[in-house]
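Supplementary Methods. Inverse-folding protocol.

Structures were first reduced to a C-alpha cell string of length 683. This string, shown here, constituted the complete conditioning input.
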C-alpha cells in the first residue's frame, strides 16, 4: 500500500529456531486486573474527594471573607481617593452603558414575552451582582437576546406551556430562572467552564447566525395589531392580525418610517463629531422616534402607531421579593427542568465567550478560574432574578465591548451601570410607556445586522465543505429548536469530522529482516513501525495493512510512535493476533506507551496471551552483532596480560602509599629510641 514502505533483506541460510517455547521475562506478569465492581467505590472516593475539596475551599473562603472584604474596601477607597480621574471615568462609562441598556432591555423583554419591568429589573440585578462577583472587571451583564429567544417558548400563548394562563407561565419562568442559577453555580463548582473550548469556531458562527435570525423573527409582531383586547400582550396568536397596505395602509407606512428612521439614526449618528461619541445612538433613536410619534404622527397626521403603554405598560415599582411556586404536575416540572438546563448552558457559553473577547481587547492572559468565577456570578444573579420576578440574563458582548473601549477597567463601571438602571426604572417609567414599538424594532434590527456573521458567505463559497455544513447545521437547528441543541449538534459534527480526518493519518513502515528474539536468531521477521493514533476511525485502515497469508511466521508491531486510544484499537490488535495464531504465526508487540498499557491490560480478552506478546526481548541483528563485538573487545582489554608500556611491568610497580604508611609507623614506634641515640651521640 502507499502508506507502507517495505524492504526485503537477504536472509541468512541458517534456519531460525522454533518459537513454541520462548524465554520470556516477567515485566508484565505482575499486573492484576481490578474486580469488576471496583469502580463503584472508586467513583465514590473520587466524588467524595471532589466534594470535600470544594467544601474546604469554600469554608476557607467564608472564613477569610470578613478580613478580605475589609482589606478590599479599604484598598478600593485608597485607590480611588488617589485616582479620582479613574473613578470619574468608571462612573461615566457605567452611566453611558446603562442608558444604552434601557432600550435593549425593553426590546428583549418583548422578545421574551414578559413585561418590560421584568426585563429592566433583570438588567439591574445582573449588572449589579456580576459587577461585584464577576470574573472580569468591566464586563456588563443584563437581559440578553440569547436567553430571550429561549424564554419566549415558555411564555408564548402557543408555546410549550400553552395550557397554562399568562400568570402561571410567568411563574414557571421565574422558577426556571431560579433553577437555572443553581445549575450555573454547579457549573462553576465543578469547573466546567473549560468545556467551552470544545465549541469550534464554525459552531460559534452558526450560533450567532441563529441568534440573529431568531431575534429578527421575534420582531415580526411589531407589524401586527389586535383589537380584541385592550393590551396587545393579552391577545392570543389567533387574535393578532397582520398590518397590510390594503387594510391599514397609513399605519403600516408609519411603522416602516419608524423602523427606517431608527436604523438610519443608529447607523449615522456615531459619525456626528463630539456629540455622536458621548450620546448612544440607540438612545438618540428612541428620543427622535418618540418625538416624531407624539408630534408629527399623532398631532399633524392624526394616526399613531402602537406604543409600550398599549402593549404592556410598566410602573416604576422597586424590586419586590416573590418566591415562585414550584409546579406540581410532572409535565410542567419536566419542562421547567429542561429549560433551566438549556438556559444555564446558553448563558454560561455566552458569558465565557464574552469574557474571552474582553480579555482580547485588554490584552489580558485568560484564566480558567476567571471563567468559573463568571459562571458563579451569572448563576447567583439569575437565582436572585427568579426571586424578584425578573427574566434573567447573561453577559452582553456589545455593552461589554463599549464599556471597556471607553477605558473602564474596574468593577465600579459595571456595578454602577446596574445602579443607574434601577434609578432609570424608578424615575423614567412614564417616558418608557411613550416609546413606539416600531422604534424598538428598529433598534433590534440593527442588533440583528451586527450579530449576524456576514463572513459566513465567504466560508460557504471558499471554505471547506465540512465547515460550511457545520455552520448551516447549527444555524438551522438554532432556528427550529433552540440554541443549546444547536451548539451540541455543532460539536458532534465537528468531532465526527475530526475523527474521520484523524483516522486517515495512520501509517506504517515495513521492513522484512533477520532479528534476534529472546536471544535467538529468527529469519524473515516482518518489522512494522506504526505511526499515528489508532481508534475507532482508523482501525479498519490499520487492519487492512496486513496480509496474513503472505506474511512471515513472526510479525513485530512497534508502537513507539503510535497511540492506542480506545477499545476499538485494542479489539483490532486482539483480532489480528487471533487470526495470525490460527495461521500458525505469532505477533510480538513492542514499545506501547505507558498510558496505553493499562487500557490494553484492562480490556484485552486474553490477558495471558497479551502478556506473552508484550514480554519478548527483541533486538536488531546488526546492533546485536555490534554489541557482541564491543563486549568481546572490553573483555579482551580487561583480561590481556601483555603490558603496553615499560612502566606497567610488575617489577616497576611501587606502592607509594604503602611505603609512606610504613615510614610513619616506624617514626611513631621508634621516635623515643631515635631521640635517645641522638643525645648519646652528642655526649
Amino acid at each position: 500500500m502507499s502508506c507502507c514502505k517495505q524492504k526485503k533483506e537477504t536472509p541468512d541460510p541458517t534456519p531460525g529456531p522454533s518459537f513454541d517455547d520462548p524465554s520470556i521475562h516477567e515485566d508484565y506478569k505482575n499486573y492484576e486486573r481490578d474486580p469488576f465492581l471496583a469502580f463503584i467505590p472508586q467513583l465514590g472516593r473520587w466524588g467524595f474527594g471532589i466534594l470535600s475539596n470544594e467544601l474546604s475551599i469554600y469554608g476557607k473562603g467564608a472564613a477569610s471573607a470578613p478580613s478580605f472584604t475589609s482589606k478590599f474596601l479599604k484598598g478600593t477607597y485608597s485607590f480611588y481617593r488617589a485616582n479620582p480621574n479613574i473613578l470619574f471615568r468608571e462612573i461615566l462609562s457605567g452611566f453611558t452603558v446603562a442608558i444604552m441598556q434601557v432600550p435593549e432591555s425593553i426590546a428583549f423583554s418583548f422578545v421574551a414575552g414578559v413585561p418590560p419591568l421584568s426585563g429592566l429589573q433583570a438588567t439591574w440585578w445582573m449588572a449589579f451582582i456580576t459587577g461585584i462577583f464577576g470574573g472580569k472587571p468591566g464586563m456588563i451583564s443584563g437581559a440578553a437576546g440569547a436567553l430571550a429567544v429561549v424564554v419566549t417558548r415558555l411564555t408564548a400563548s402557543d408555546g410549550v406551556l400553552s395550557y397554562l394562563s399568562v400568570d402561571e407561565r410567568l411563574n414557571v419562568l421565574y422558577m426556571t430562572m431560579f433553577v437555572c442559577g443553581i445549575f450555573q453555580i454547579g457549573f462553576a463548582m465543578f469547573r466546567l467552564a473549560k468545556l467551552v473550548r470544545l465549541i469550534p469556531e464554525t459552531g460559534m458562527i452558526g450560533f450567532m447566525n441563529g441568534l440573529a435570525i431568531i431575534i429578527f423573527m421575534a420582531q415580526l409582531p411589531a407589524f401586527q395589531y389586535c383589537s380584541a383586547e385592550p393590551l396587545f400582550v393579552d391577545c392570543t396568536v389567533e387574535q393578532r392580525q397582520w398590518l397590510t397596505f390594503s387594510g391599514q395602509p397609513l399605519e403600516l407606512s408609519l411603522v416602516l418610517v419608524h423602523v427606517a428612521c431608527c436604523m438610519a439614526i443608529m447607523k449615522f449618528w456615531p459619525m456626528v463629531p463630539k456629540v455622536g461619541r458621548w450620546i448612544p445612538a440607540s438612545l438618540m433613536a428612541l428620543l427622535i422616534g418618540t418625538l416624531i410619534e407624539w408630534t408629527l404622527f399623532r398631532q399633524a397626521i392624526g394616526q399613531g402607531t402602537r406604543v409600550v403603554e398599549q402593549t404592556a405598560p410598566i410602573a416604576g415599582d422597586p424590586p419586590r421579593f416573590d418566591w415562585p411556586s414550584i409546579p406540581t404536575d410532572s409535565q410542567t416540572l419536566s419542562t421547567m427542568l429542561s429549560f433551566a438546563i438549556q438556559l444555564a448552558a446558553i448563558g454560561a457559553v455566552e458569558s465565557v465567550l464574552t469574557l474571552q473577547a474582553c480579555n482580547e481587547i485588554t490584552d489580558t492572559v485568560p484564566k480558567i478560574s476567571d471563567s468559573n468565577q463568571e459562571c458563579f456570578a451569572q448563576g447567583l444573579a439569575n437565582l436572585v432574578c427568579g426571586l424578584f420576578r425578573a427574566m434573567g440574563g447573561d453577559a452582553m458582548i456589545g455593552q461589554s465591548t463599549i464599556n471597556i473601549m471607553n477605558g473602564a477597567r474596574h468593577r465600579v463601571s459595571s456595578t454602577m451601570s446596574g445602579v443607574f438602571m434601577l434609578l432609570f426604572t424608578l424615575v423614567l417609567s412614564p417616558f418608557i410607556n411613550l416609546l413606539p414599538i416600531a422604534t424598538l424594532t428598529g433598534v433590534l434590527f440593527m442588533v440583528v445586522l451586527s450579530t449576524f456573521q456576514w463572513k459566513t458567505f465567504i466560508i460557504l463559497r471558499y471554505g471547506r465543505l465540512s465547515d460550511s455544513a457545520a455552520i448551516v447545521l447549527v444555524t438551522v437547528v438554532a432556528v427550529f429548536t433552540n440554541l443549546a441543541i444547536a451548539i451540541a449538534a455543532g460539536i458532534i459534527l465537528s468531532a465526527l469530522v475530526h475523527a474521520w480526518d484523524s483516522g486517515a493519518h495512520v501509517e506504517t513502515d515495513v521492513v522484512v529482516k533477520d532479528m534476534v528474539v529472546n536471544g535467538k536468531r529468527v529469519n524473515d521477521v516482518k518489522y512494522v513501525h506504526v505511526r499515528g493514533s489508532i481508534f475507532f476511525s482508523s482501525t479498519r485502515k490499520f487492519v487492512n495493512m496486513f496480509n496474513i497469508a503472505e506474511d512471515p511466521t513472526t510479525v513485530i508491531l512497534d508502537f513507539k510512535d503510535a497511540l492506542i486510544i480506545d477499545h476499538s484499537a485494542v479489539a483490532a490488535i486482539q483480532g489480528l493476533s487471533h487470526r495470525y495464531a490460527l495461521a500458525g504465526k505469532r505477533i510480538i508487540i513492542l514499545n506501547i506507551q505507558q498510558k496505553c498499557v493499562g487500557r490494553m491490560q484492562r480490556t484485552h480478552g486474553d490477558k495471558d496471551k497479551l502478556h506473552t506478546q508484550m514480554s519478548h526481548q527483541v533486538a536488531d541483528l546488526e546492533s546485536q552483532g555490534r554489541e557482541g563485538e564491543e563486549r568481546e573487545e572490553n573483555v579482551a582489554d580487561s583480561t590481556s596480560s601483555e603490558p603496553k608500556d615499560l612502566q606497567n611491568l610488575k617489577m616497576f610497580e611501587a606502592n607509594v602509599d604503602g611505603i609512606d604508611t610504613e615510614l610513619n609507623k616506624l617514626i611513631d614506634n621508634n621516635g623515643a629510641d631515635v631521640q635517645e641515640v641522638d643525645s648519646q651521640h652528642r655526649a
